[in-house]
Amino acid sequence: MAGASLFIQEDLKLTDTQVQLLIGILNVCAFIGCLTAGHVSNYVGRRRTITVGACFFVAGSTVMSQAHSFGLLMAGRCAAGIGVGYALMIAPVYATEIAPAATRGSLAATPDVCINLGALAGYTSTYFFGKLPLAQGWRAMLGLGGLPSAVLALGVLFMPESPRWLAMHGRVEESRAVLRQLSDTPEEAELLWSKIAPVAVASPQSSAGVWKEMFLHPTPPVRRMLVAGVGILFMQHLSGINGVQLYSPRVFKDAGITSRDHILATTVFMGLAKTVFILSAILLVDRVGRRPLYLSSLAGVIVSLTCLGTTLAIIRRAEPHHAAPWTLPVAITSVFTFVASFSIGLGPITGCYSSEVLPLRLRAHGVSLGVALNRLTNAAVALTFVSLSDAITMGGAFFLYAGLATCMAAFFYFNCPETKGRPLEEIEEMFTHGWRARHQLSSLEIPVYGNNPRR
């Protein structure tokens, strides 16, 4: 949509306000999808919920590609938004629940890798389809998004159901069969079953029971887990990443790139940088841990946003077309380092960590709530970026995001212990004490199941 919006605005004669609404409405509708996905996943299962979300994507892409009015574009974008809500909630939950502890971080972060590969494909297709006639180009950009969604809707049906969801619904033999399929040895499968079974039996079966435990009578550990798991989801997009991704053509134009082809080509390279660094995160998350990677990521985000804000302020104060020659490459580099820093920690670890720290009985609804709040902050950035840039300049907007990222670093440092290598059923014990005790627990030697036991 970042590149397609340029062509849509020209073809359908949309105003800046309509473009801003078209881009931002996806996350408003994703909020609705998130709130319903938790209940649906507990009722029909994790993998079938992925299929439901994919069907919404197919419908949204089809409607948008055939739209000849702003209203139909909004309808298709809303359908896609509901699909976003389902996908962002269920993908990390499913990956977390089927992954062994030793590789859970990398596997649970894989959905974010796929999102970025899709974004890179979107940026690239925008560049090439932009050379087609105006009306055909943007329709091809949006319509082809339904193809991978259709493949996903069918392909996921051949994957195993979450053994923890099966156990929670009393399907004991099926759960144990899946554990044997996912484990290296039968002994390992039985060991995991011995840990899953007591937790699954104690899990409430009704949504009312889950919400009651979360909000009416939460225990101190549950309260701390909700603060950590839901909190990082809520704050993820306060860094302003969506402003840069969705409005990257405007950012590069403000930085001094005037050619449309050059703007789109730079956007493609930005997507490539994101993909490379998120692949690096997959290799590092189970080696260095969640905390070091996440906090290092935030440090890079803060520095990059401050540098970008400063450079854009200098460009704005210069006379038109008379900015210093160094400002354009510095601004572009700052954008690239920003998305790279986000992608190596803040992007992939957020979904993974929030799924890990919430217990089985609360996981689906807790992640559902967290992703819903995540979509609200995402929508707030998408719907206000243009207006905020007009009000305090684009450089000022990035200074604001840098300040919010600093607050995020403080929150994570004081509220989120390390979870690397711990079986899901043992993570809850880290939240039974204050932060200092949890921090000490996270550094102890812990058992890891799989081929490579380590600290």
Name of the CATH superfamily:
MFS general substrate transporter like domains
* Second-tier CATH architecture: Up-down Bundle
Output mean pLDDT: 81
Residues in helix, %: over 70%
Distance between the termini: 43 Å
CATH fold description: Growth Hormone, Chain: A
C-alpha Rg (nearest Å): 22 Å
State the total count of DSSP E strands. Answer: 0
Label the structural class: mainly alpha
CATH class: Mainly Alpha
The tally of helices reads 20
Which descriptor suits the 3D outline? globular
**Sheet with most strands:** none
Number of domains: 1
Beta-sheet strand percentage? under 5%
Order of helices and strands: HHHHHHHHHHHHHHHHHHHH
Subcellular location: Membrane
Main location: membrane
GO molecular function: symporter activity
Membrane topology: Multi-pass membrane protein
Describe what you observe in this structure:
With about 450 residues, the protein is an all-alpha fold. The protein has one domain: MFS general substrate transporter like domains (Growth Hormone, Chain: A, Up-down Bundle), CATH 1.20.1250.20. Helices cover about 80% and strands about 0% of the residues. The protein contains 20 helices and no strands. It has helices at about 5-10, 15-45, 45-65, 70-100, 105-130, 135-145, 145-155, 165-170, 170-180, 185-200, 205-215, 220-235, 240-245, 250-255, 260-290, 290-315, 325-355, 360-415, 425, 435-440. The two termini are about 45 Å apart.
